[in-house]
Specification:
By secondary structure, the protein is of the alpha/beta class. It has one domain (4-220): 3-Layer(aba) Sandwich (Rossmann fold). It has seven helices and nine strands, in the order E-E-H-E-E-E-H-E-H-E-H-H-E-H-E-H. It has helices at 34-37, 82-101, 116-126, 145-151, 154-158, 174-186, 204-220, and strands spanning 4-8, 15-20, 45-50, 54-57, 63-66, 109-114, 134-138, 161-166, 191-196. The strands form two sheets. The chain has a seven-stranded mixed sheet, sandwiched between helices. It has a two-stranded antiparallel ribbon with strand order 4-5. Helix 1 links the parallel strand 2 (15-20) and strand 3. The longest helix has 20 residues, at 82-101. The chain is globular, with a radius of gyration of 16 Å. The chain starts with a strand and ends with a helix.
Length: 221
């Protein structure tokens, strides 16, 4: 089981958000976002911020760092190391299962992620037999595109997705996010899409829009 950083907004939380960091960061990276995102009146939430394993990353001259998978080149369909992606999907599945053991079923668990973490969140949710409450992919893209159509489950296809991207992102090209959005919609996935005039980062307007989207999910039960 991956090591995690956790923040609970109330005792005995009824919902969970498993949030995956980007390349080279760790589980502490997005923990400070909790007070900016959470709104009065929301149910209790357990935020789970796992640390990715440390591995060499080809595109960074083989340097070892926290990464959900190796990045081998700059092409959308081949940049993500399939073995690493599938290992990370399995690790995320373990985290979702642990939330179930702690009393929070999959239908009240969100997967969220930034950049590499968002890629794993999208790939994992699409392949689940039991639908999640939703998926959040920030400044990211859909990996394993060649196998997605055959591996996406009915539950994965109906899971709502919030995707957001910076129009000035030099790391994960905006067109990769757009192509991933279109691929998801082509599978019937309900995707809400937002863009912001920012680089490879997160902005206040984005957090507000994500809060609106989560608000609607909580209201729907």
């Amino acid at each position: 089981m991956l090591e995690t950083v956790e923040r609970c907004t109330a005792p005995n939380p009824a919902w969970s958000i498993v949030w995956l960091h980007g390349l080279g960061a760790d589980g502490n990276d997005f923990a400070p976002i909790v007070p900016d995102l959470v709104r009065p009146g929301w149910p209790g939430i357990r935020f789970v911020f796992p640390h990715a394993p440390v591995r060499p990353v080809t595109l960074n001259a083989g340097m070892r760092m926290r990464a959900w998978y190796d990045i081998r080149d700059l092409e959308l369909n081949t940049r993500a190391d399939e073995t690493g992606v599938r290992e990370s999907i399995a690790q995320v599945e373990d985290l979702v299962a642990r939330e179930g053991e702690r009393g929070i079923p999959a239908q009240r668990v969100f997967l969220a992620g930034f950049s590499q973490g968002g890629a794993i969140a999208l790939a994992a949710a699409l392949r689940r037999e039991a639908a999640l409450a939703g998926v959040v992919g920030l400044s990211t893209y859909l990996p394993l595109g060649n196998s997605t159509a055959t591996e996406a489950t009915p539950a994965g296809r109906r899971t709502p997705v919030f995707m957001a991207h910076g129009s000035q992102d030099p790391m994960v090209r905006p067109q990769w996010g757009e192509a991933s959005r279109d691929a998801l919609r082509g599978l019937g996935v309900p995707v809400e899409w937002r863009t912001y005039p920012m680089p490879h980062s997160v902005c206040a307007e984005e957090i507000r829009d994500l809060g609106d989207w989560l608000d609607a999910r909580f209201a729907a039960g």
